[in-house]
Task: structure prediction
Amino acid sequence: MIPGSWRALIWIGLSELCALSLWFSASVIAPELIIIWNLSSNSEGWLSASVPIGFVIGSLFISYFGIADRYNSRKVFAASAFLGAILNSLLILADQAFLGILLRIFTGITLAGVYPIAVKILSQWFPIKRGLAIGILIAALTIGSSLPHFLVMFFSEFNWKIVIIFSSFLALIAAMIVQWLLEDAPETSKNLTPFSFKLIKKVITNKPVMLANFGYFGHMWELYAMWTWLPAFLTASFTSYSSEIPIKFIAFSSFISIGIAGAIGCVVGGIISDKIGRSNLTIISMFISAICSVFIGFTFGQSIWLTLILSIIWGMSVISDSAQFSAAVSEVAEIEYVGTALTFQMCIGFLITIFSINLIPIIQSFVGWGWVFSLLAIGPILGIVSMVKYKNFELDKA
Result:
């Protein structure tokens, strides 16, 4: 018999995996949407950035009005996943860019009721020893985000609308799992630290909190830009090496690098962080990911297996530290503004992704694929500097 907390983790992780397939559902079919909506190739970045924009808006709205505290968290998750499925499916009816991007923004808003709420539900089931549990949850998020690449393997020869319909169907499954299979945690205590603009000053003036935040900001500068543009890089690199590479192999390579490798990195990172400390884990992860972002460009057009191995290592390291930045803030922030500190961290982090996602195609047009990802190394390098300084506070706390 599986204990209640681990049974809950299975349902939460599975629902997160299914619901987060909405995040990149439009990005993987961007070439088709660019033609249908008559967009320039550079507009693909805004197609991907529209979801983070919506996510920031949604997370601020949910936090400011205390939605997750006023209503049952499970029902908030289920309703958000259901609305996200509906909005995502409406994309097949959109015949112009404005409407399509607007739908993506609204989809991002609904996802703000999925990812953060899942973290809250999980924290209720795991009041202690959350490292591995959070790692597994982020692993589910990672696989879910990359799932559209997996769908392309099977539906690449069919109409692009099938990818949208299938990802919407998965989000509906997520809503049903949380609504009818996931139980409420034994102690669903109210969150006494809601978001407040009045408390932001305390967040900003708390040095260890901001050092952890700066580490997270550097991490986010790299993460979603890598997730968005690595598939395009692999496509260009593989086809440059051989024009006979099938699209299914490229899609599978993207899924392995982002989803499977990322999931493994999340779980391993969660386990290691509990043993060596959050700052040490984040420093190691960002160091490895920074090296990968610089050197992967040198493999462009070279051996496919060399490129794929480096992209897998990058996929593992770029996400393995993600959960630890929020955990760090929760450990050093005063209880009265933990909620505000975490919301501030997440909102600024996702705002940063909008800039890095859109900067990549602009820089790529000047320097090519060989050097463009070096731009992303700036984030983890600055993040390492912050987390080295944060480590002193972590040692003092210990």
